């Protein structure tokens, strides 16, 4: 089966918020040939919904603290509204999709994050991806669409970092397929100058990565994203691409991450 | 495959609202042997959520009118919160479940209800159930858990009557399995006297059904439920059972519907 290329695509929250760009992205995703998997974030939808419901969103170091109310909102918005709407839109584009969270078919099993300095609440760190179940869907020409929710072995739903969901799925599937990982987000890739969307660094290998870390060019949200990327490359994923919604059709400059 | 008995179980909204009874029901459901499918309503969760969000729920003749806001709430609560929580609870009980709406794997294709006297809004009438896809899950020992949401061929999500979802799934699956349909709700079955929960009519066949209709013993919500039942029996479903949450373990009196 290793002769087939599997594409695991993560779409970031800010792209989902922009209706036009999101629809373009789904068209491009739908047009991709071969087996593929979509992982989505949820952007501000959960925050907005929590606000409407009178729940306060607690953040520490740019990370959401997931209390019981937040988890409820995340399951409703990411696991329900956004996930099912993506599936329906893909069906409209002729792509047979299925919307999943980690509890479905025990697809993404996690462990609740231990409380150290910060109690992140109902947050999961992924332990195991059920690659057999996911490949059984792919073999039926069905496109799995994952919201970033995992589940413990004991059946507890947990909020999970979307980038990690994508990279862990890609890692697990790489034993069966040649696997490419795509991170689509609001920028054109990893930027040499954060203020200049044209300053895309086109290729990053391990030595370039260390250089960029030393020069503090990689900061904030890009830090865990690139850390995830190199972990995935070390664990079987062949190539990783970062870029905007046009990335899937290679219409624009983007960043390619290689070992 | 017809030697296998498939159980299609619908659980009503009011049972889901009662945490203790709901957990008991899930234990009983989890303990059922053989292939099985769960279909759930959502009870007052959608109405409560709509209220919290400041949306008004419009009812005509006891039926919810599904405007765009209501549909959003239904997808969030039934398709997200309730569906994923049921799946997680089943996983906790050792049952490998998957949460689906009609858009997932094109499992339940419907048509938007035509506007005649009443415009029901975003409401679907089922046209086709994807029995091949559902049986592929059953063959993997996975339990499909359906929220009462269907999808048009054009990819539009629609609110759908939960009893109809259950009976249409049972009808479609009856070409592959001997199929039994279970309606679990807050009463002990079809009652001869609505005020007396002990007055269960234990068996209803077609002539008894006509009699009960003539005597106006079957009224309100029981009318479409029994209409669905006899349609299902005429289309391949072998037996239908109606009763409370203990029905699955045959612990209490219940109603059996036969041709």
TrEMBL record, chains A, B:
Which SUPFAM superfamilies does this entry report, sorted A to Z?
Answer: Carbamate kinase-like
User: EC no.?
Assistant: 2.7.2.8
Q: Which GO terms describe its molecular function?
A: acetylglutamate kinase activity; ATP binding
> Which reactions does this protein catalyse?
N-acetyl-L-glutamate + ATP = N-acetyl-L-glutamyl 5-phosphate + ADP
Looking up Pfam families in the UniProt record yields: AA_kinase
Please identify the protein, giving its name as recorded: Acetylglutamate kinase
Q: The Aspartate/glutamate/uridylate kinase domain covers which part of the protein?
A: 7-243
Q: State where substrate binds.
A: 42-43, 64, 159
What's the gene? Answer: argB
Name its species: Salinimicrobium marinum
Which PANTHER family does the entry link to? N-ACETYLGLUTAMATE SYNTHASE, N-ACETYLGLUTAMATE SYNTHASE, MITOCHONDRIAL
Query: GO CC annotations?
Result: cytoplasm
Keyword line: Amino-acid biosynthesis, Arginine biosynthesis, ATP-binding, Cytoplasm, Kinase, Nucleotide-binding, Transferase
Q: Which terms does the UniProt entry file under GO BP? A: L-arginine biosynthetic process via ornithine
The record's section on InterPro entries has: AceGlu_kinase-like_sf, AcgluKinase_fam, ArgB, Asp/Glu/Uridylate_kinase
